[in-house]
Amino acid sequence: WDETHFGKMGSYYINRTFFFDVHPPLGKMLIGLAGYLSGYDGTFPFQKPGDRYEQHNYVGMRGVRLCRLFCAFLGSCLVPFAYLTVLELSKSLPAALLTAFILIFDTGCITLSQYILLDPILMFFLMGAVLSMVKCNNCADRPFSASWWFWLSLTGVNLAGAMGVKFVGLFVVLLVGLNTIYDLWDLLGNLSLSLVTFGKHLLARVLCLIVLPLALYTATFAVHFAVLNRSGPGDGFFSSAFQSQLIGNNLHNVSIPE
């Protein structure tokens, strides 16, 4: 059922047809982009679960046959992400290998990664945020180095990605937020650290973990509204003034008073 739901939304992006959904737009935009780049023309109706795809080029969006394509590729990335995260936390190769093998043979992950779903995209950004956070923590002995800035910024990018796919991504925002508060509290208690240096640490985290994710999250909506410029099933959820901007709407280019 979900594949029918989100596959149709991917087609909406390819056809630039406006729609409304309860989730933020990033996941569906990426699905549409994957379909567009793989040659899918957005014509499959996705009317009900179980419909045969026949001659439609769905491989790029579904990734059933080629595991490197989009959802299947993102799902396969969970294994090295988990491996590296556990290795960084425990410094134990057996523990990291065990974690990787558990995910490799997990039926849930394998199943979710086969279809046109938001779940593998969400999990990719969630685990990417945790890995980046752990990597940044391990660079604490060399703050403001190139690697420290890279992992801190990448954490912010992954936070924006997680929030941009589903709102449950806020849970990883909470995790990173608590970790950041702990780090700043520890730095504040370091008497050998000047207040100026502490201020730099605080500013770096505000820029990379608050400003950057919010900017990227907002940018996804800017792209969403720029791409979907044709009338569709989501028109009725918005004002008459907004509908007048959609090509094909009955109110298109009609002058709407404030």
TrEMBL record:
It comes from the Eukaryota. Its main location: membrane. It is found in: Endomembrane system. Residues 1-229 form the ArnT-like N-terminal domain. Pfam families: PMT. It is a multi-pass membrane protein. The chain crosses the membrane at residues 66-86, 92-109, 149-182, 202-227. Keywords: Glycosyltransferase, Membrane, Transferase, Transmembrane, Transmembrane helix. GO terms for biological process: protein O-linked glycosylation. Pathway: Protein modification; protein glycosylation. GO terms for cellular component: endomembrane system; membrane. One of its GO terms (molecular function) is mannosyltransferase activity. PANTHER family: DOLICHYL-PHOSPHATE-MANNOSE--PROTEIN MANNOSYLTRANSFERASE, PROTEIN O-MANNOSYL-TRANSFERASE 2. Belongs to the glycosyltransferase 39 family. This is Protein O-mannosyl-transferase 2.
